[in-house]
Write a structure and sequence with these properties.
The structure holds four protein chains of four kinds. Chain A is an alpha+beta fold. Chain A is built from seven helices and four strands, in the order ααααβααβββα. Chain C folds into three domains: 210 residues, NADH-ubiquinone oxidoreductase 51kDa subunit (Rossmann fold, 3-Layer(aba) Sandwich), CATH 3.40.50.11540; 85 residues, Ubiquitin-like (UB roll) (Roll), CATH 3.10.20.600; 102 residues, de novo design (two linked rop proteins). Classes of the chains: A alpha+beta, B alpha+beta, C alpha/beta, D alpha+beta.
Chain lengths: 164, 530, 429, 174
Amino acid sequence: MFKLSNKGTEFVKNELSRYESRRSAILPCLTLAQEENGGYINAEIISYLAHLMDIPESQIQEVFMFYTMYNKKPVGKFHVQVCCNISCAMNGGRELVQHLTKEFRVNDGEVTSDGNFSFSRVECLGACGGAPMMQVNEEYHENLTPEKAVHVLKNMAKGNSHGS
Amino acid sequence: MFEKVAQKLKEPLMPKCTINGKEIEVKDGTTIMEAFYQKEVPIAHYCYHPGLSIAGVCRLCMVEIEGMPRTQIACNTKITEGMKISNVSDKAKDSVKWALDFHLINHPLDCPICDQAGECGLQEQYMHFGKYEPEMGQGKVKKRKVVDLGERVVLDTERCILCSRCVRFTDEVSKTNELGIFNRGDRSEVGTFQDKPLNNNYSVNTVDICPVGALTAKDFRFKQRVWLLKNRESICTGCSTGCNVNVYFNKGGVYRLKPKYNSDVNGHWMCDKGRDTYKHLNVEARLTKGKKTEEGKTTECDAGELAKQTAQLIEKIKKEGGGDSIGLIVTAQYSNEEYAAMFELFKIKLGSNNVFYWINNQKTFEAFDGLLYRGDKNPNTKGLLRALSKCKFDQTWDKLEEKIKAKQLKIVVVLGPENQEVYPDISEKLKLLNSVDNVVWLTTNQVLGTELLKSCWQIPVKSTIEKSGTYINFKGLEQKIKPVTNIVSGALTLTEAAALFAGDEIPFDSKTPVKGERVWNEFFHHRGDL
Amino acid sequence: MEVKHLTEHYDKDGYATIKGYQKLGGYENLKKALKMKPLDIINEVKASGLRGRGGAGFPTGVKWGFLPNNGEPRYLLCNADEGEPGTYKDRLMMERAPHQLIEGMIISAFAIGSPKSYIYIRGEYFYPKSIVEKALREAYDNGLLGKNILGSGFNHDMDIYSGAGAYICGEETGMISSLEGKKGQPKLKPPFPAIQGYLGKPTIVNNVETLAAVTLVIRDGAAAFRKQGTEKSPGTKLFSLSGNVVKPGNYEVPLGYKLIDLINIEGGGLKPGRKLKAVIPGGSSAKILNKEESEKATLDYECLAQMDTMLGSGAVIVIDDTNCMVDLLGVLMHFYHHESCGQCTPCREGTGWLEKLVNGIKSGQGKLQDIDLIETVARNMCGRTICALSDAAAFPAMSFVLKFRDEFEFFVREGRSKIKGTSYAKMHH
Amino acid sequence: MSLVKKDAAIDRWFLPGIIAGLFFTIKKMLANIFNRKSMPTLNYPEEKFEYSPRFKGTHILTVKKDGSLRCTACMLCATACPAECINIVAAEHDDPVVEKYPVKYEIDILRCVFCGMCEEACPVDAVRLGPEWQIPGVNGSNFIYDIRFLAYRPALKGGIPSTVEDEERHQAGI
């Protein structure tokens, strides 16, 4: 059974009173629940939240399914999102993703066997100057080449440095 | 001069506009769609529903307004003075055609297996605005079909055109927030959270307002094709709200009930329990022939014949024991005219005032679920009370028990309930009556457990949709209804029964229609509104 | 030539902290504004001709003027969603000068008399959000927010709200729905947000750059502000240059600056040995300009409108001759199909159809009439929906097919791209 | 000019009229004797008349690849039939892909006028009017053809496959 940590429940409580309408708290609480559940959300969490925040389940499910940053499937410890929109596509964004997925022997949207990485193609991340680029969990890594990207990810896997 | 100005200011601003060339005047603040509705000018629309909020998402109600370069949606644009609106101009027709085209490119087109075929919004508008060569050659978006949403509604997300009527219904009318639109773009799907069943008491309303076959009623699933049904107005006898309904029927009987708009009774809606009331109207559940059960032996005979025998029996008992030995038990399920006839028979002809009112659910009488469904499950309680007080029958129920114990009543006529589900205490009443030597039970459906009575004569009676009459709902509003169809032709109405009990003939010939009548194929029929 | 007004002190370290910001003249404009009457500030902004920097280019003063003066509490929302492909100027402003934004917002809030304002920042901007949150705390600690700001009796609260990844929340009413905790689906207009917006109250939504520019208007006054830029589009603007240029980046140039100079001077020109093929002047939803047009174009609202495109959010995407236009259109159509919120039928089904049409051509099974079909479907999506996303999807489709029809026909006839060495067929999503 | 012919003397004798008539019969008899092939009569049942492929005979309910009925009980044929002789009762199929199928499909052949409207109305080529026309039925025998007869009678050898196939339509995304 999924249960938020009491720090999390505390956060949900004051989020509910922070905005003018209680429903505005749905987005931040879903983000929190996703972090506490290791990066993705399932139906059990939604009914737990609905019960905790006293908001109809369909309203939370609507928000959860609408936004792309709420992951529907389990993701790796480092969720690598590579931008494939127009400016990055012209500078080899898509080739970068192909190279990474070939390198870590996993296809799009799945988790590597050791659970460390999952790759997904995403839309414009607002870093078109540093094309091609990727976002790993919360950090941006710009001006990548396939080799540099693999290097950065390998370091992360060894856990010795957070970010380039 | 100032009075004119003041008077002008006081009286509400009435903007004038022309719709398709006709000059009309509307209240200030009405939208173009409401003006079209008032003037019954046909306009294509899916997501607008007079009983719900405006969504403005189907983009089908495009109208061309003089002076505006682009066509505007009618449901959200308010009418201003001197606006020239047309929804039949080429530009409007073209944008409606394209809006319809966008609806149809991912539509599964499974009309052969879709219950909505015949009253489907897409078919309707295609015949007016479509008739084009389909340009879409690419693959359609595949979504989940035949999703089971509880025991009343089936969902098919592929047919859904995402007009959000059902979502707005569960948010605004039934206030249960069960339905939502999940995902984004053309992967969006209507549904409940984890396919939880839709079990509020108004779930089948979402089926009525769904313009396509996405939400279909499980009870009507594959039963009949809509164009083989006719529909006429009547009222629902489920409870004392008296919702106006459209009864859908054909020679095979009644298939379903749909709400009919009535602003001061039920608005656009109707509750699910009321929809099941058609089940006991069909011929399978009905008593078609008069039934006499004496000491366990039952014989059948024609209803009129049985009524005449009852008349002689009453005549005999009246001679021996006088008016007092004849009793009448009344339920509030019949119309005012019938009560007047029956009470007039008992009061004047038989001179007995042993009339007792059988109240079925005393405890939950005042229950009310906030929208339509009331605790008082009889359609004409107010009418009955008024008739009782007019004839000053005020004996209470325990007086009946005394009289039965005192063996004073030789014969009791029971005006049995039409809707037996709401009368759980029938068997209890039968036990009470078994000491009476003659019981005449007028009923629409078979009454179970009458064998333990000494002698019980059951006379088939016409149901609400087979007779005309007035019913008074809880608010005291008199609603006059006309007969819809004829299910048990041999049955009598109470007025006929009263006439027969009094010994004289039924004024007109009520024989069953001649056999071999040509079964008429309803090729053209009057369809319910979308 | 680059004229640094807004971004004058961006590269000074410590400018993001309140001390560094105040040392370089920060919050002086706020003191000045609090002394003025709110109506004068609105007239000053109207006189300066400042236009919205988010994408529509609507004059800010006029937008503030729509607010009803019925004393109802009104909200000021800062649109920092920045989802338009090619745009990354707001991120720079929030990382380098959060206080400039906060000061601009307090001045604007004081002008329109709003007790509460929100910064709606896009979900992916974790780092910029942390910086703005730190700046907000600093502002509260120094009495610049909360009750009785700087002793002027004006109380104002400011909060930051993060989205969760939806391009549609960049649209005014889409953002308002998202802020209300619902799906980011745009609301029906009318009623416009200025009359009935966030939670039914009058709401003003402005872009980050617009609100920051308000501080310039107050500091220099409307006349000085008008010196830069052209008569109808005054002031300077931050342009995000991206695509096949040597030095992509954010450059602040006065409006009316020549597009080709921005590419060659600021952007360092194209990569060696490559020729300019096309430029998308204002973010992905602006119609594309081919080589000749981009040489003539100047970066202001009027000139680009004449060329049947728009300045938009000022994201200049440079495309050189090694790119296949059919493939790029496929990328854009996938973007709009993925980001359509699914409310209105023309956009929900139309974007999907456009993507399938372009992918059909890209896979080599396209037919010649598919090209005309793209154009007809796009034309019939324009102006038929609640928000402008369906127009944003239709504009690239129409302009790519109109100006680069030969590449589409080549792809249909030959089944491969006209540009050599492009193995795009493999790289579908 | 009145049409009635005057009674010429020769007509009063009937013999010449008969001989003239017989003359035509004798001509035909001689032609048949000497040229046997041109005789139009067929020795039924050895020789049967070859009707055209469009001949509208006894109905056939076509079947899918897996042998189940192609008909989805959409009642279009029952609605289009001018004689109203088709009676269908639909039911829910347990395989959700099929969803709806006829439990009862009966044609009252005595009322049917073989007009072929049902064949034209059917959207999925489920009912056809086949080439057979010699299906006997003695007085009082069962003239209501049910599903077993219409789709799986021995002459159809296991059922006639329909041209409309669901799987291809689903793959093509229609």
